[in-house]
Amino acid sequence: MAKKRIAITMGDPAGVGPEIIVKAFAQEDIYKICNPIVIGDKAVIKELIKVIGMDFDLDNIEMLNLNEIKNPSKLLKGTPSEESGRACFSYIRKAVELYRLGVVQAIVTCPITKVALKMAGLPWLGHTDMLAELTDTEDYAMAFYSEHLKVILVTIHVPLKEVPYLIKKENVIKSICFAKKACDMLRIENPRIAVCGLNPHAGEEGIIGREEIEEITPAIKETKALGINVSGPYPSDSLFWRAYKGEFDMVVAMYHDQALAPFKLVAFDKGVNFTVGLPFIRTSPDHGTAYDIAWQGKAEPTSLLEAIKLAVRMEV
After folding, report:
1. pLDDT-above-90 percentage for the chain
2. What is the pTM of this model?
3. What CATH number has the domain bearing residue 180?
4. Statement to judge: residues 91 and 204 lie in one domain
């Protein structure tokens, strides 16, 4: 069976993306598990190798050089800029183009930042909504994978004060269905899906909030009628422990930090972010650009390696 062709985008050139790519290829023979092609700037990688004093032969990486950063020595390293924001988008756009041409079957994205995108005058908050628009995808969800905990979000990057207004039955139904699809992509048979409540104690039968009664429970009942093995809503302060111990295969969380705080506690170095609903597999390290340690030789490639391995495993 032919190995999967995977595009790896460099992410923000001012962040840790260039370093984790070089270290990933130096640490493992990625060509044994897939056919990778790095999309980015060769001159940036060369500059990175020089700056951190790493002994690495760049010829060991097949790379599509877009030459977005004209003078890497003058790149504002460890900080967002208009130049790096434009480069982020260029790498991702090229990866999607390669998918449309049938050249790659999956995309692994190194970290970008909303600030750099905004400085470049781009409208997106991150990879997820950018990839959705580039592929004309209307319905999608952000999910996270680790060996012991897997979660999917009903709401993504919205202010906390807006979350309750978005917890509507139809949105929860959609997220539960995406949770089932995520499990299918991960090849989990007969998955057990658990749903978080929004409020403390899952609302305590309406005493601490009514979203569980009016929106979340009806959504669970409707998706259960579709044949999905789903239950809840459960208090999130105990649900994640139960899922971590193996009682559930996937957790549907109501908002970003409800899921990401426990997830990163148990899988900060190995967690993988993936998008459900796109026409192709897309994974990413579950960490940011880490500007505070970028270009200093301190970045670890573990999460990127896990993202690559997961992209190999998954099916759309």
Report:
1. 93
2. 0.93
3. 3.40.718.10
4. no
